[in-house]
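Researcher: Let's do a round of design. I'm pasting the structure tokens now; please hold your answer until I've finished.
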């Protein structure tokens, strides 16, 4: 049976980069089927809901979704639609590769880092937010659990092993956050002892950021908590040319959502000039999740070859091509 995936076109430039991505997937003749559902502003304007029940039911039934960027209206509903999706489907592992591509503005060559970020707990979730009546004091609860720490660190080590990676770096702030980050680090050490074939080291988050800028080649797989992972994964994207080349996978036991991690870029929406590579790379992660790793590699090779040839690149990559020009150039190379 050909796999069917839920497709969320998204807001802003979302529909344009999704059209480009599906064009390439269709050109690869993979037999994928699509069920289109709405979320974000598009859903709100149509149904008055940011996350309609039909969308949630479709993702739950199919177990796989490809998502363009979404807008959460200010003052409406969720603090973040992405956070709501991650919590609804317990998508505990956020996997963000940062890989050097040719002909970008990247300052480094040979970067190949995967950040594995815990996705469902910690400060980023925003639990226990409160503002005092006089407006002078704001508080926030940060909760880290043994279960959450165990499964994300174990995921990182399993990913390293299956992908032939050599090293996992656990990033923390246990020197100061002795309870929350301390628990995460203690669990990480316990898990690391079960994987003697994988090198393990631990690094404080502020030093990690400095080391990423100074010697990024020392990193292979990074695993960390939610807020630190959010910051570090964007830093890694900056090493390889920016968020236009940054995909993300949100993985849970029963569902997975794949995406471009950049925003909706409303300033260029509708102009047909958006770079679709991040979402295409997210689609590549999706293919690997579906057991189509050979096809995922074929897609990534086509992207690299198109960038090497400077064929129809979008303006952010130094070219003059449109979103669909770029997509058609990549699609042609998927057959090579």
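Researcher: That's everything. Go ahead.
Model: Designed sequence:
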């Amino acid at each position: 049976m050909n796999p069917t995936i839920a497709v969320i076109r998204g807001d802003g430039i979302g529909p344009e980069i999704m059209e480009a991505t599906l064009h390439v997937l269709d050109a690869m003749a993979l037999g994928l089927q699509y069920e289109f559902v709405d979320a974000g502003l598009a859903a709100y304007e149509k149904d008055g809901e940011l996350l309609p029940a039909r969308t949630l039911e479709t993702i739950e039934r199919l177990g796989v979704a490809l998502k363009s960027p979404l807008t959460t209206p200010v003052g409406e509903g969720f603090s973040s639609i992405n956070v709501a999706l991650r919590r609804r489907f317990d998508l505990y592992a956020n996997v963000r590769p940062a890989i050097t591509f040719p002909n970008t503005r990247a300052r480094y060559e040979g970067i190949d880092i995967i950040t594995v970020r815990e996705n469902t707990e910690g400060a980023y979730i925003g639990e226990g937010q409160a503002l005092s009546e006089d407006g002078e004091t704001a508080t926030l609860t940060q909760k880290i659990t043994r279960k959450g720490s165990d499964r994300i660190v174990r995921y990182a080590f399993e990913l390293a092993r299956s992908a032939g990676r050599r090293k996992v770096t656990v990033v923390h702030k246990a020197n100061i956050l002795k309870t929350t980050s301390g628990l995460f680090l203690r669990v990480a050490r316990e898990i690391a002892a079960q994987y003697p074939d994988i090198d393990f080291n631990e690094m404080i988050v502020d030093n990690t950021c400095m080391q990423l800028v100074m010697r990024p080649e020392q990193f292979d797989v990074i695993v960390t908590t939610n807020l630190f992972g959010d910051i570090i994964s964007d830093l890694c994207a900056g090493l390889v040319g920016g968020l236009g080349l940054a995909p993300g996978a949100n993985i849970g036991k029963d569902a997975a959502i794949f995406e471009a991690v950049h925003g909706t870029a409303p300033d260029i929406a509708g102009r047909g000039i958006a770079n679709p590579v991040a979402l295409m790379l997210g689609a590549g992660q999706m293919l690997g999740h579906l057991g189509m790793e050979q096809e995922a590699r074929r897609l990534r090779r086509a992207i690299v070859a198109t960038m090497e040839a400077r064929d129809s690149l979008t303006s952010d990559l130094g070219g003059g091509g449109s979103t669909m020009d770029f997509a058609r150039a990549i699609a042609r190379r998927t057959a090579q």
